[in-house]
Design brief:
By secondary structure, this protein is α/β, with parallel strands linked by helices. Helices cover 37% and strands 16% of the residues. The longest helix has 25 residues, at 322-346. The structure holds zinc ion (ZN). Zinc ion is lined by residues 38, 79, 311, 315, 501.
C-alpha cells in the first residue's frame, strides 16, 4: 500500500469512526419504567386496531421497539410480584414477593402465630400531614431495585415512583431510593411516608392542596371513541359489577361521584375504578418530575409510573368489557400527554421508556364459555381447603380439638399449621412432604383444579421440567410460598370477581412489552423472549450502570445499535 492510499484508508476509517460516534446517541437524561396494570398481551392485541394515530401506544409502536414475547418467568401473576420484577429484573423466587399477600408466622388477631400478611405492610411512621400513608414499605423485598443501583452508582441521580396502588409504587422503586408515592382512597391524596422522606416535599403539599381530583367530581364516564372501537363487546352483562355511584348500573355512561353530594372516600374509590385514576397518576408523575427536577441535567434520573385503574376496571367489568376497552383507549391519550410532557421537559430523544405490565388477565369465564371453551368459576379454593383437610385427617388422624392441619389456602398456595407439624415430631421436612403430597392429591379432585404439587417436589431437580413446573418453581421463595401449589384449570376462576388473574396460564403471564428512546430503532419487532423485568437490563445498558441483581436476561442483537 502506498503512503497516499494508506492515508486515504485512514481518512475513510476516521470518517467511519466519526459517523459511528455521531450515530451513537447521548444516553438518556430520564428513563421511565412504565407499568400498565393488567395489560395482557391478548388484551392489547384486541385493542390495537382501535388505538388512535396520535396516541401514546401508537407512538411507541412507530418510534420504538415491540417485544412480541414478553412473559413472566414466575407463576404468581399478581401486582406485588409483577412490580417487584419490573423494579428488580428478577422473578419472585429471587425478589421474594411471592404474592400480594402470603401466610406468615407473625402473630394474628388471636395472638397466635399465623396471619395473612400484605406484601408492603410494615410498621412505619406516617408524615404528620399525610398520616394515611403510614405502615407501608419495601422491607419484604429481598433484593435491591434498579432505582437503588442507579442512585448507588451515579452520584446525584434521583428517583420518583408513582402509582395509585401503594404496592406498585413501593415495589418498583424499593425503599433505599428516591420517593414512592401512591393515592389513598380514604382521602384521595397522594401520599408517602417516613421510609422515604422526613417531611412532605413542598411540591407534594402543593399537589394535594390543588385537589385536582375533586375537579373530576360528577364527571360522566362515557365512551370516548366511535362504535367500531367497541365492536363485538357487550356492555350490559349480568356478571359485571355495578359502578360505584349507588345507582346500581353496569353500563356506560356513568357519573363518577361515588353517589355523594361532595367529594369523599366513595368518590375517590369510584375514581380509582374509572379512567380518572389513570389521569391522576399521569398528573402526579408530571408533578414529581417538575417538583424533583428530574431529567434536567446530564445526570440520569428514573421515573417509575404505574397505571392501576386498568386493573381495577378489568376486575369489576372484565377485560372483555366496554369499560376496559374504553379505559385503555383513554389511557392511550394519557400516555401521549406524558410522552409530550417528557419531550418538552427533558427534550425529544433525551429520554427513554420501557412499558410493560405487572401481570395479564383471564377472559371472563362466561365470555370464554360463550366462545366454546371449558370455563367456569366458583369458590374453588374454599373447596380445596376442605378437601385437603379431610384427606389429611383420614391419613394422619384428627388434630387436637379446634385445630386444623391446613392454616390457609389462597392465591394458589396452601400453608400448613406449623405448630401441628412440629408437634408430630421426627423429621419435620419429611412429614411436610408426606402431608403435602396427600393434600395435593386431594386438591386435584376438586372441580376447577387442573393440577397441584407438593412445593418440595417442585424444588427437586430430578423431576421432569415442563413450562408449568418451571414457572411454579420460579415463584417459590423459601419460607414464603407455602407447602402445596395449586393450579386452576385454564379459564377457571376462583371467586366471584368478574375478571381475575394470578395463574401460570399464558393469558396471565404474557404481557405487553414496548421500548422507545435514544439508540432504540424505530418500528422494529423482536421475537426473542424477554421478561417484564427487561427494563432493568435495558436501562442498565443504556446508562452503563450495573444491574442490581445478576439475571440471565440479554438484549436482543440490534436493539441498541453499536452499544
Ligand atoms: Zn388485579
Amino acid at each position: 500500500m502506498t503512503a497516499r492510499s494508506a492515508a486515504f484508508v485512514t481518512l475513510l476509517l476516521t470518517a467511519a469512526a466519526v459517523a459511528q460516534r455521531d450515530a451513537a446517541p447521548a444516553p438518556p437524561r430520564l428513563v421511565v419504567l412504565c407499568s400498565v396494570d393488567q395489560l395482557a398481551a391478548w388484551v392489547f392485541a384486541n385493542a390495537e386496531p382501535h388505538l388512535a394515530a396520535d396516541g401514546g401506544f401508537r407512538r411507541l409502536l412507530r418510534d420504538g421497539a415491540r417485544f412480541l414475547d414478553c412473559r413472566y418467568e414466575h407463576a404468581c401473576t399478581e401486582t406485588g410480584p409483577g412490580h417487584a420484577t419490573i423494579g428488580t429484573g428478577v422473578p419472585a423466587r429471587v425478589h421474594g414477593i411471592v404474592r400480594n399477600q402470603w401466610w406468615t408466622l407473625e402473630p394474628g388477631k388471636d395472638g397466635r402465630p399465623g396471619k395473612l400478611t400484605y406484601c408492603v405492610e410494615t410498621p412505619m411512621p406516617g408524615l404528620a400531614d399525610l398520616p394515611e400513608g403510614k405502615d407501608r414499605g419495601a422491607a419484604r423485598l429481598l433484593v435491591p431495585t434498579f432505582a437503588a443501583s442507579l442512585e448507588a452508582h451515579v452520584a446525584g441521580s434521583k428517583v420518583a415512583s408513582v402509582s395509585w396502588k401503594d404496592r406498585s409504587a413501593i415495589l418498583m422503586a424499593g425503599e433505599e431510593a428516591g420517593i414512592a408515592l401512591w393515592f389513598e382512597n380514604s382521602t384521595g391524596r397522594l401520599v408517602t411516608n417516613t421510609a422515604w422522606v422526613e417531611a412532605t416535599p413542598a411540591w407534594l403539599t402543593q399537589f394535594n392542596a390543588d385537589k385536582s381530583i375533586d375537579g373530576y367530581f360528577g364527571w360522566t364516564w362515557d365512551r370516548c371513541a366511535g362504535p367500531d372501537a367497541y365492536a363485538g363487546l357487550v356492555d350490559d352483562r349480568p356478571y359485571e359489577a355495578v359502578h360505584g355511584n349507588g345507582r346500581k348500573q353496569r353500563t356506560l355512561p356513568q357519573p363518577v361521584d361515588g353517589g355523594l353530594q361532595a367529594p369523599g372516600s366513595a368518590f375517590y374509590a369510584q375514581a380509582y375504578a374509572s379512567p380518572v385514576g389513570n389521569t391522576m397518576v399521569r398528573l402526579a408523575a408530571e408533578a414529581a418530575v417538575r417538583g424533583m427536577d428530574l431529567g434536567s441535567d446530564a445526570v440520569p434520573d428514573l421515573l417509575c409510573v404505574s397505571f392501576s385503574s386498568t386493573d381495577s376496571i378489568g376486575h369489576a367489568y372484565g377485560p372483555d368489557s366496554v369499560e376496559a376497552r374504553d379505559a385503555l383507549l383513554r389511557l392511550d391519550q394519557e400516555l401521549a400527554r406524558l410522552w409530550t410532557f417528557c419531550d418538552e421537559r427533558v427534550g425529544k430523544g433525551r429520554w427513554a421508556v420501557f412499558l410493560t405490565a405487572d401481570h395479564g388477565v383471564a377472559p371472563t369465564p362466561e365470555w370464554a364459555k360463550a366462545n366454546g371453551v371449558d370455563a367456569g368459576r366458583g369458590t374453588i379454593f374454599t373447596f380445596v381447603k376442605a378437601a385437603m383437610e379431610s384427606a389429611l385427617r383420614e391419613r394422619f388422624g384428627a388434630p387436637p380439638e379446634g385445630r386444623k392441619y391446613v392454616a390457609h389456602v389462597g392465591e394458589g398456595s396452601c400453608y400448613f399449621d406449623e405448630e401441628l407439624l412440629a408437634a408430630r415430631g421426627g423429621d419435620v421436612d419429611a412429614t411436610r412432604l408426606q402431608m403435602a403430597r396427600v393434600a395435593a392429591a386431594a386438591a386435584k379432585k376438586v372441580r376447577g383444579i387442573g393440577d397441584a404439587f407438593a412445593t418440595a417436589d417442585l424444588l427437586t431437580p430430578t423431576l421432569v421440567r415442563d413450562e408449568l413446573r418451571e414457572c411454579l418453581a420460579q415463584a417459590l421463595c423459601p419460607g414464603r410460598a407455602g407447602d402445596v401449589q395449586v393450579v386452576v384449570k385454564p379459564y377457571w376462576l376462583d371467586g366471584m370477581t368478574t375478571g381475575a388473574h394470578g395463574t401460570p396460564h399464558p393469558y396471565d403471564r404474557q404481557v405487553v412489552g414496548l421500548a422507545m428512546g435514544p439508540g432504540i430503532p424505530a418500528g422494529v419487532r423482536f421475537a426473542q423472549r424477554i421478561t417484564p423485568g427487561f427494563g432493568v437490563a435495558l436501562f442498565a445498558a443504556m446508562l452503563e450502570v450495573p444491574r442490581p441483581v445478576t439475571s440471565a436476561e440479554t438484549l436482543p442483537a440490534g436493539l441498541l445499535g453499536t452499544r
